[in-house]
Amino acid sequence: MRTLFIGDVHGCADELDALLKECGWQPGERVVLVGDLVAKGPDSAGVVQRARELGLKAVRGNHDEHVLRWYQGQQKPGKKLKPEHQHVLDTLRRADWDYLDALPLYLRLPDVNALAVHGGFLPGVSLRRQRQEHLLNLRSIASDGTPSKRVDGGAPWASHWRGPELVLFGHDAVRGLQRHPHAFGLDTGCVYGGRLTAYVLPEGRFYSVPARRMYMDMHAA
Ligand SMILES: [Mn+2]
After folding, report:
1. What secondary structure letter does DSSP report for 32?
2. In a domain, 159, yes or no
3. Distance in Å, CA 15 to ligand 1 centroid
4. What is the pTM of this model?
5. Is the pLDDT of residue 27 over 80?
6. How remote is the CA of residue 86 from the centroid of ligand 1, in Å?
7. What are phi and psi of 47, to 5 degrees?
8. Which of 80, 160, 201, 211 is the most exposed, fewest CB within 10 Å of its CB?
9. Is residue 144 part of a domain?
């Protein structure tokens, strides 16, 4: 059975449709979205609806987590929701929230020796002991070992990962497609006018489609 791993969709429902088609996806083939299904793009509800109806698997991204916290009333008092998040609150339906709420922070797929996570993790620490903040937001590890959510906070975290699992992750549109020995970063900035990218097993091939347009300015985000 094929498994398609897909980078940060961010509400780009048309591009998700196009990418599934580009991959030759057939119902029944496994799809794993690496998080940030919603926010910033035009049709977050459409993306979650497709994920539900097509039976796609996914891991939780930082934006999925953020809107869920607001939906569940856990927001900090006095904080205001950004428009791109308010739009998600205004458009998702109950079943969509239930889908997001059920998303795990990471997903192991032992049958293909792979692992999906949105942000990253600290190599050498078991997954269940990782901080949620890192699973959702990690981007870099400095030379002294300090983890950072910043792109300029050191080397990409995944460059330190020695396997054995192949890790598929997202959350780093600035670095774009990352190809490390045992980890691939799939966020190629579709919502910023880049591309939506998939990595497919067992064939070991990347597929991508262009964004229909720039939905958000990367530097304004
Ligand atoms: Mn993210």
Report:
1. E
2. no
3. 18
4. 0.96
5. yes
6. 17
7. -65, -45
8. 80
9. no
